[in-house]
Predict the structure of Agmatinase.
Amino acid sequence: MRFDEAYSGNVFIKSHPSYEDAQAVLYGMPMDWTVSYRPGSRFGPSRIREVSIGLEEYSPYLDRELEDVKYFDAGDIPLPFGNPYKSIDLIEEYIDSLMKDNKFPLGMGGEHLVSWPVMKAVAKKYPDLAIIHMDAHTDLRTDYEGEELSHSTPIRKIAEHIGPKNVYSFGIRSGMKEEFEWAKENGMHISKFEVLEPLKEILPTLAGRPVYVTIDIDVLDPAHAPGTGTVDAGGITSRELLASIHAIAGSNVHVVGADLVEVAPIYDSSEQTANTASKLLREMLLGWVK
Amino acid sequence: MRFDEAYSGNVFIKSHPSYEDAQAVLYGMPMDWTVSYRPGSRFGPSRIREVSIGLEEYSPYLDRELEDVKYFDAGDIPLPFGNPYKSIDLIEEYIDSLMKDNKFPLGMGGEHLVSWPVMKAVAKKYPDLAIIHMDAHTDLRTDYEGEELSHSTPIRKIAEHIGPKNVYSFGIRSGMKEEFEWAKENGMHISKFEVLEPLKEILPTLAGRPVYVTIDIDVLDPAHAPGTGTVDAGGITSRELLASIHAIAGSNVHVVGADLVEVAPIYDSSEQTANTASKLLREMLLGWVK
Amino acid sequence: MRFDEAYSGNVFIKSHPSYEDAQAVLYGMPMDWTVSYRPGSRFGPSRIREVSIGLEEYSPYLDRELEDVKYFDAGDIPLPFGNPYKSIDLIEEYIDSLMKDNKFPLGMGGEHLVSWPVMKAVAKKYPDLAIIHMDAHTDLRTDYEGEELSHSTPIRKIAEHIGPKNVYSFGIRSGMKEEFEWAKENGMHISKFEVLEPLKEILPTLAGRPVYVTIDIDVLDPAHAPGTGTVDAGGITSRELLASIHAIAGSNVHVVGADLVEVAPIYDSSEQTANTASKLLREMLLGWVK
Amino acid sequence: MRFDEAYSGNVFIKSHPSYEDAQAVLYGMPMDWTVSYRPGSRFGPSRIREVSIGLEEYSPYLDRELEDVKYFDAGDIPLPFGNPYKSIDLIEEYIDSLMKDNKFPLGMGGEHLVSWPVMKAVAKKYPDLAIIHMDAHTDLRTDYEGEELSHSTPIRKIAEHIGPKNVYSFGIRSGMKEEFEWAKENGMHISKFEVLEPLKEILPTLAGRPVYVTIDIDVLDPAHAPGTGTVDAGGITSRELLASIHAIAGSNVHVVGADLVEVAPIYDSSEQTANTASKLLREMLLGWVK
Amino acid sequence: MRFDEAYSGNVFIKSHPSYEDAQAVLYGMPMDWTVSYRPGSRFGPSRIREVSIGLEEYSPYLDRELEDVKYFDAGDIPLPFGNPYKSIDLIEEYIDSLMKDNKFPLGMGGEHLVSWPVMKAVAKKYPDLAIIHMDAHTDLRTDYEGEELSHSTPIRKIAEHIGPKNVYSFGIRSGMKEEFEWAKENGMHISKFEVLEPLKEILPTLAGRPVYVTIDIDVLDPAHAPGTGTVDAGGITSRELLASIHAIAGSNVHVVGADLVEVAPIYDSSEQTANTASKLLREMLLGWVK
Amino acid sequence: MRFDEAYSGNVFIKSHPSYEDAQAVLYGMPMDWTVSYRPGSRFGPSRIREVSIGLEEYSPYLDRELEDVKYFDAGDIPLPFGNPYKSIDLIEEYIDSLMKDNKFPLGMGGEHLVSWPVMKAVAKKYPDLAIIHMDAHTDLRTDYEGEELSHSTPIRKIAEHIGPKNVYSFGIRSGMKEEFEWAKENGMHISKFEVLEPLKEILPTLAGRPVYVTIDIDVLDPAHAPGTGTVDAGGITSRELLASIHAIAGSNVHVVGADLVEVAPIYDSSEQTANTASKLLREMLLGWVK
Ligand SMILES: [Mn+2]
Ligand SMILES: [Mn+2]
Ligand SMILES: [Mn+2]
Ligand SMILES: [Mn+2]
Ligand SMILES: [Mn+2]
Ligand SMILES: [Mn+2]
Ligand SMILES: [Mn+2]
Ligand SMILES: [Mn+2]
Ligand SMILES: [Mn+2]
Ligand SMILES: [Mn+2]
Ligand SMILES: [Mn+2]
Ligand SMILES: [Mn+2]
């Protein structure tokens, strides 16, 4: 006899009460143990849920309401602290089960490394999967200080797994020289600094294809997302990010899963970033889950 | 024998010492008791005054100085805590007296509900009043959880009072579906997302008319106004808001009163929002009080 | 198929999965709408749960572990925003059901007014109920600005309901002169400033009696509990409050319910107060639920 | 026609409306320009006034109410930024006028240097003045980096002015070796670390004498007063400071003026220090103004 | 035997170990004693160094790496607290030595006044020096409250020293009417509000000339730089500032020195401003030191 | 040609310029990668150095000045991020070198695990070493989630290494039941809750023995040390901790090394904890290095 949680802040606002007939499943991946600089994203999913109760249920951008989509907030995947190997195995396993049940996976990080096992699991079902990646950072390292499981490696891993030509990065403004060179040499797409304009050019070329979208909140300028571990000046506005989500929604790609990662509440004065994340998730749900 | 307060932070900087020969009267409405999510705007007016001492007295936008306008800061209207009914009566009564004395009323909120009795009082004097409303939110609800006096209802109230066709909302990016529909069906103007461009189109149609301007600080993006109760991503910049104030100043409308509401210091790291509000008020005084 | 929540921060750590065989029920009362000065305690229960995952499960004070007590965290009672009348009715109704099911009610506020309907419901079952009240404030007003439902009135209400002689306040360092006088004239016990020593003197006189304990976190000095609406210097240490909880645990009174109220996360730098509250709740559970 | 300010936060709560029949005058000295480490106390007086509206008007310590004393809050003395010489002249001049009018001067800093001109002015009227000084720091330097007007010199200055034997410092836990030696060699009293116990011993020796009390808020431990420029561990509790104020109130000394300095809002999370300062001022008013 | 400091946060990341063969010298000027409103920039240089360890060493804007430039971080110039006269003498003396050794001076403030002695020293070596100044403020006062050494005077001083026609200000949105008029009358260039576009127009006219660039971080909008003493709405984005640095790098001017001033960590929630400053310094080093 | 750093905040205040003739060596161990709950202590050492410039150089407790002890601040040991194995090897190696050079090692954490390799290295030189451990937590786990290198295991490791009978823990108020039982069964000393009184009883029994003292800042109550990862109510005051340091200084034990760990600046509003840590280090240097 728990109180109904739809507006409690324990689940994302208006979470559907049952898994079975949900189209999409929202889940948290509270892991930040490979983060080198400023950890804290492990608390991201719970804070996003907490502030989601302040969210308006209607999107004037998409003219659609939260009750038009059935999504189930499954809570946070329990991950073993400090063990990235076991953590990514558990995530992959969970996404495998969602894929089997034909659910749209909508993940909340945690650090960006969590996207790697998710994308791997989604690629099993969709062999010609393409990745749309929005981030300040290339995330194309092979390793960080000798460790291949790092929040700076997930895009390299998926690029090697499904082929660099199938990965499209946008808004990148930071990385090692070697990472940019590797991308160039291997035919991976990188749009530096901008998101919306290059995205609009590329979307038609992906028409009909299954696409997974992974958004690192730090693609936003620190003005728009102070609450993340690695703030980096010169980013895009939340308005451009919203428009980019809507551009994907209005295109002919087939979004088959998505995530939003790296929200870190401890650096988030005024809870501005968590609120923005909760609005972005609403638009992702309403625009991409069909 | 109180010390002169012109630069004390207890009044808005350079407040004229007497009410009698002032053109404009600045007053606070420290009420936030109908706020559902994050209260705190009751402390807005006093913090804006406090930071106003850091304000330059000259506007390079308008080439005008504070001493070119005589305004009297009357302090905060004493409002009975927790009682919105009596509070709005007291506000209306006070504005009635300002109208009688031919003062330009320039109000500081407090929650947005405080604008309702002000607009009502101003409309008594100016029967063909138009409202320019800048906000992230429609504020067109008939009630909130059954209560008609709520910070989500003031625009509905004034729209029904003076006719929806006389109300022009700008920058709106949040609201219930029903609110947008009601506006549409009743001929009320709503510009979604943008302020400056649609405003420039509409101003000529209002030439010569008396206009009251109500600005909810959350029309700004959270990057520009973190210090408010309901932050909502995708807003405009402070630069666009300044330009909008100047567009009105340069038009042929007759501004007969204005307010700036919803500044909440507790969420305002670096006092950024209070400082911005104090600059906006300077531009409103210099641009609109003639 | 929700993930197990025992360590998720959505429930108090190690919450038992079922209501039926639980001895105690933990519940939140997220209400702060009668608060005059600094609201925010509505977010107290969820933040206490969130930080409870950092809590050690063993008490070296009591040599007892959380798994020695079966408690069920029921979540937050959904309360109608801004309506104290309906809110307290809903709380009373819920506690009535807990009483019927022979559960130990352990509440988390919210503002102190929420204790009034709880105590009233508990008193139905235990007619000779005594109240132990720890607070910086008397909370003995008849009304606040004419409103009888206020966070400054709950102790007056219960005192009039069960008789002032059955109410024992400790640690009081703030109130109106009239409140102290009313207490004195009506035989109600008030220990000013101190908690532990006077409590030790009074506990033997209550031996065998059913006792409800209501703790306002502001009984602690602001040094120990900055995260509350009404900080008031000169309070007790968290060490004295822990010892007071243990003194009750070691006495012959029969604790039949309890609450901890007024934690307000927005003022709680370093989450110190929420962490303290979560430790206090552990000691209350382990010391008082038998 | 300004609104009544008694509860506005612009004056200390319940400030009497007129200077003429006030017993005491409260005034701010918003100066911090000689501060070497962390400035910010210039904003102390206004924040103390702002939070004073949350203060209970009755003291259960002294069984006295604010309306039992007539005090007038004169606002902040306008001081020329960056010019300590002219600032202290202006302060001295103002206190001279208060002395002439037989007002009890109750000052709010600002940095501790502001106490020097006040004490000098008070000493003109009371030639056998004694000083009670509570502080973490000796403040006995002759100069700081060659500058004799520094917040580390006021006690040296008054000690040389009225004779070191008439100065009694309490709670001192920081200073240069030379300062402690100078005090010893010149017969000035310093109680290291403790306040209440040594004060109780000394008060009888001062019976009947005019005494000025200067309290640096940093005499409190940083736990009790984080909001000050120079936090220094190992200080006293707010409880001990309250008891010390009451000890003076209950003694036979004749308090002829007092101040409370060094509150710096920018470091004051939860406004804990400002709230404590406002309570201390209430007790000083009720205990010392007779 | 100190540990290598290249990644310690005690020096700017990858600082070259020796002064002798360095092309550029980075140094801090931790002075803020003439600041009237909100001091704190004296801690700017050390915080910028601290966060620089999170900086990527490669610039995707300039396709250049930090190891492509040899720069030596000399630490902070020890400045006598509270004494602006001696401080600026010490700064000038130090820059004289850098000029003699043919080093590119790259300074970190501190308040803007520190740029005055630097520019004076650089002008000795380069008689036809031009100044590019980016700021929210004119900084053209002759004095502040009678004091000619103020953070509002450095541009006036250098303009009078090398001739107003050689000074180009960009992004100005605040100042006294007299300052704008003085600039106009004396042929000094001021671009109001904008930086990038007017800069692009002016750079060709400066081709071949030695240029010193002084950037006040408050040229950025408060959204992009909350961590400064004088936040002023309506500023440029960090993206525009980066592009402006790159425009200079790509032009034919000969940058002979530069500084970045007014970062104040105490107002810098999420350390956003310090991180931005560290990125700007990387771009200045990679773009301007050749 | 670096500027002298003695007062720069880059080294602990008044650090001696050379290693060779220093009695003590101060060093940072910026590691927090095994921390389960709230990381951030990796930034502790640099913040402690930064605030140390505000420290008075004389101790009125010990009547000794910093220049009476020669200590060299070596900076932070460069530790490989995310690799606790290699990190503790590097630390041990460094302490070995200090031991060989007869330096008194004074370490700053970082998480508590860093003390393990230090104590191991010190024990090589002093076979009959005893450990004095002050902490809120037992730190006696064999592993955390299967990982033996965790900040909850260092005391278990040293206890097993030198024999549990040689380890004395004080102030412990948190831990698993098994940890307390293991201590009891193996003759290790644990003083629950208190530090000063039990310490005074035990010091005579250690007379003449070499002792290493490891202080976890969380032994302080959260009121006195909010800036740490695991705040736990009911701790001791900074006054008791200072007195405990002085009690050791005044005893006949032979302190041969010490550390202070777990200061985490991100949670440290007002920099209170860093300031306290810097004062504690001064007292440790002046009291223990002879
Ligand atoms: Mn990423
Ligand atoms: Mn990223
Ligand atoms: Mn509104
Ligand atoms: Mn709004
Ligand atoms: Mn209460
Ligand atoms: Mn209370
Ligand atoms: Mn002092
Ligand atoms: Mn002091
Ligand atoms: Mn400037
Ligand atoms: Mn500026
Ligand atoms: Mn420990
Ligand atoms: Mn610990």
DSSP finds eight helices and ten strands in chain E. Chain E has one domain: 24-288.
